[in-house]
Amino acid sequence: MIQRRSAPPANSSPAFYQLLVRVVQVADENIDSAALSTVLADIRDHFGFDSAFVYEHEPSGRLTLQESASTSGRTNLPESFTLDSVFTADQTAQLVDFPVLYTDAPGSAETDTTCRIRELFASESMFIVFISDDVQAIVACVGMADTRRHEPPEDDELDQANMLFKPLAERARLRVYKRKLGYAVTTLESIMDHIGFDIYVNDFDTHEMLYANKSMAKPYGGWENMRGKTCFEALYSGQSDECTYCPKKHLIDEQGNPSKTYSWDYQRPFDGKWFRVISTAFTWTDGRLAHVISSTDINEAKNNELLIKRMAYCDMLTGMPNRRKFEEDMENALSNAQARDEGIAIMFMDLDGFKQVNDVYGHNGGDYLLKHVADMFLENALTADRCYRYGGDEFIFLFENTSPTRACEYREAILGTLGRPFVLNDKEIACKGSVGIAHYPEDGTSYWQLLDKADEAMYRDKEQRKQSR
C-alpha cells in the first residue's frame, strides 16, 4: 500500500488553499491548455497519484483526453472511449446520479461500475467526477488515477479532491458546450450558404442588416459590404428610404406580433433577374423583432412564363397582340373608363380584296400582305400599342380617353397608313380596308355591345365603298 502524506486536514491546509486558488484561476475557459496541465500536475502531486486528467465529449460520441499530467512512465490513460462500450445503460445512469466516485482495489464495497472504471484506466485507485448536461448525458469527466493501491481516503480528503476537480469539470462542460455551439453555427452557416436560395435578415423597425447568406451577399460585394447598413442602402445604390413595396405591413397583426408569411415576385433592377420572395417576421436572438427575406431565382421560370403569356397573347403570323389580348385590354379599359368617366373608341377594320390576293398570289402572298399591314401599324406611333389582329384579315384598334371627334380623326389616320402601296412579287399593290367605329358610352357600355356596333359600322363602310366605285 502507498501511505498518504500526513498533512493537516484539507480545510486547514494553506497549501490546499493556494492550490484551490490556482485551480479557480485556470478554470476560466480562456486560460490555455498548458496552464491547465500544470495545475493538474499540482493536484496529482498533492494527492500522491500517478496521473490527473480531463476528458471531453467529441462530436464522434467519444470522450477524448484533452489534458493530462502523468508521472514518468505513466502511459495507460486511454486516448478516448465511449460510455456504452464500458458501461450498461443503468450504470451510465448511476454515473449521472452519483458523479463523484472513489474506487480502490477490489473489496466488498466495490460495485461492477467502479470495477469497470478501474479496468478502463488500468488503475488500482481512482478518483473521478462525471459531468452531465441538461438532458442527463455525460459530456466530460475529470479525475486522478494510480496504478498503485491507496488506502481508503478520509472524508476531508474526498472533500478536498471534490473542491479541486469540480471547477475543472465545469470548465470542461463549458468547453464542450462552446464546441457544440461552434459546430452548430458552422453547420447552420453551411446549410444556409448551400440551401439553394438567398436569405437576409434585417431589423423590423430600423431596417439594419443583421444577416445575409453568401449567395445573397455576393452580388453586393459580400457580407462585410452590407453589415451596418439598412437593407435599402445595402441593396439599392443611392436609396435613402424604405422601399415603397416593403411587405412589413403584411407580416404583423394589429398588436404588432408576427402573424403570417407573405410572398411576391421581384425583378432585380441592376440585372433584370426575377426572384420569388418570401417574407416573415420573427424574434431575433437579442429579442428584437426582425424581418427575414428569402428569395429563389425564378428567372428561367419567369421568362418561360412571360414567353408562354406572350405566345398566348400574340398572333404568331403577324407578331401583333391577338384577340385574347384585346378582350383582356378591353375589359380593363371599360373598367377604367367607368371609374374616370372617360370615353373609349374601338375601330374594327377589314381588308378589302384580301380573297383576290390569296387567289392570285396564293396563301403565302396573303400571309405576306397580313404581315405587311401588321408591321405598318406596329411601327406607327399612333397605333403601335393600340392595334390587334382579331382574326383572318380583320384588325381592331382600341383608344382610351378618346372623344367621338378624336376617334374620327384616328380613323382617317389609320386609312391613310393602310393606303400606302407595297410591292408583292415585283408588283405594286395598294392595300385598302374598311373601318367602323364604336364609342363608349354612346354606342354601348359592354364589350359585346361595342364590338357589334363597330362591326356593323365596318360593314356599312364597306358597302359604301363598293357603291362608290
TrEMBL record:
InterPro entries: DGC-Regulatory_Protein (IPR052163), GGDEF_dom (IPR000160), Nucleotide_cyclase (IPR029787), Rev_trsase/Diguanyl_cyclase (IPR043128)
Organism listed in the record: Raoultibacter timonensis
Cleaved signal peptide residues: none
SMART domains in alphabetical order: GGDEF
Residue ranges of every copy of the GGDEF domain listed in the record: 342-469
Name recorded for this polypeptide: GGDEF domain-containing protein
Pfam family, one: GGDEF
Alphabetized PANTHER family for the sequence: DIGUANYLATE CYCLASE DGCT-RELATED (PTHR46663), GGDEF DOMAIN-CONTAINING PROTEIN (PTHR46663:SF2)
Gene3D superfamilies: 3.30.70.270, PAS domain
